[in-house]
Each structure stands twice: as structure tokens, then as C-alpha cells.
Amino acid sequence: MVSLALAVPHTKRQSCVNQDWAVQGFSSFTADPGPTGVSHISFTFVDPNTGASSICSRSLAPGSGQSPADPDNFYPCQDPTMQYKFDGKKLTLEHTLDCAGTTETASGNTDLVLQCIHYDNVLYGTNCAIVTFQVNVPVSSLVA
Q1: Which pLDDT tens digit goes with each residue over 43-84?
Q2: Bridge partners of 98?
Q3: Rounded CA gap, 67 and 84, in Å?
Q4: What is the CA radius of gyration of the chain?
Q5: CA 40/CA 19 separation, integer angstroms
Q6: Does residue 28 contact residue 38 with C-beta atoms inside 8 Å?
Q7: What is the DSSP letter of 5?
Q8: For the ranges 14-28, 47-61, 78-92, which has the lowest average pLDDT?
Q9: pLDDT value, residue 15
Q10: Is the four-CA dihedral 72, 131, 77, 41 of positive or negative sign?
Q11: Which of 117, 120, 136, 121 lies closest to 29, judged by CA?
């Protein structure tokens, strides 16, 4: 009796980004209009595939009264290989990484479930945060 074993090649998706990313401590604050209010967004982007972790944050000019949500532009995290875009509900992440000697950009997104509270004292604005400490973000593409 002869056994035949077939080798199944690993895809780049399997070998480079086989685990979901994590977003930890996501918070978005929209300051009420006024001279001192600062709208901002902040969270930690964790890629367990590479061991990379980076704080992602952005603050708007004081007094803008605008939301930090921006559906059109990506913003860099402290680790410049990681970036994000947030439209007010959907968070899109990108991570440029070395995959078997080739530079690849992986991306993924998720709709965040946010709990928002408006403050009429001291902060004067609306803070929205994820209801759990961590949200998993599936990686949906990997391109050279």
C-alpha cells in the first residue's frame, strides 16, 4: 500500500497575517464649539502577526468643534508602518510589513459599536468609546 501525501502551499495571507488585529481602548471625543475644546481620537493598534503595537491618535485644532472622524484620509500611528481611517462608525486599518522578503500592505476594517456620552461640564463635548476594552479586526486583504 502506498500513501500519497500532497503538500499544500501556504498563501501569503496564511503565512503573514493569519490572526486578526486588535484595537484596544478606542475613544473619540468631539468638543463642543468654543475657544479651548480639542476634539481627538485615540486607540492602540495591535498586530499579533508581527508583534507590532502602536498608539494611534490625532487631535484637531482647539476650538474647531469638529469631529475627529474623517472618511477620506488615513492618519499615521506612532509606528509609521501602521495607519488608520475612521468615518464615525467604520474603522479601517492598514499595516505595511515584510512578508517573505516582499513589502506588503495588509488592510482590514470593522464597524465599531460605540457608547457615546455628552458632557455639559468641564469637558463640554461628546465622548464615544468601544463598549469592550478590545475589538478584533479581521484582515481582509494583503497586496504588494
Answers
A1: 999 999 999 999 999 999 998 889 999 999 999 999 999 999
A2: 103
A3: 15
A4: 19
A5: 29
A6: no
A7: -
A8: 14-28
A9: 63
A10: positive
A11: 117
Contact (Cβ atoms closer than 8 angstroms) between residue 136 and residue 113? no
Residue whose C-alpha cell reads 463598549 in the numeric block: 131
Residue by residue, DSSP assigns 72-108 as: EEEEE-SSTTEEEEE-SSEEEEEEEEEETTEEEEEEE
Helix (H) or strand (E) holding 12: helix 12-16
Place of cell 488608520: 84
Question: Is the whole model's pTM more than 0.90, yes or no?
Answer: no
Neighbours of 45 (CB within 10 A): 25
The CA-atom distances, in angstroms, between 46 and each of 6, 36, 62, 78 are 35, 32, 29, 12
> Cell 481620537 appears where?
41
Distance of CA 118 to the CA centre of its chain: 24
pLDDT of residue 87: 97
Distances (CA, A) of 143 to 66, 80, 81, 97, 108: 34, 18, 14, 10, 12
Measure the N-to-C terminal CA separation of the chain; round to a whole number of Å: 44
| Under 8 Å between Cβ of 47 and 82 | yes
